[in-house]
Amino acid sequence: MRDNNIKPVEAADILGVSPQFVRVAMQLGQLPIGVAIKLPGSTEFTYQISDNLLQERTSKNVQEEIRRIRERNKR
Question: At what angle do helices 62-74 and 8-15 cross, to 10 degrees?
Fold first, then answer.
C-alpha cells in the first residue's frame, strides 16, 4: 500500500464514525469520498479514498489528520 492511500479506518477516524460505516456507505454510494469496487474474481472490495473529497466533506486538514493518526498508531 502506498503512503498516500487513505484507509477506511483512517477516514472513519477523521469522520468520527466506524470503519464499517465508511465501507458500507461507500459501497452503497452514500459517502462520496472516493470509490469502492469489487475487482473481478474477488470477494472483497477495494477502496480508493480521495483526500480532497474527504477534506471537502469535513473541512479538516486531511493530510495533517492522517499524519496524526499514523503517528498515534506507531506507538
Answer: 110
Q: Please, which residues bridge with residue 37 across strands? A: 46
Whole-prediction pTM = 0.89
The 3-class SS string of the chain reads CCCCCCCHHHHHHHHCCCHHHHHHHHHCCCCCCEEEEECCCCCCEEEEECHHHHHHHHCCCHHHHHHHHHHHHHC
Residue in this structure with the C-alpha cell 503517528, named with its chain if needed: 71
Residues 55-70 have pLDDT tens digits of: 999 999 999 999 999 9
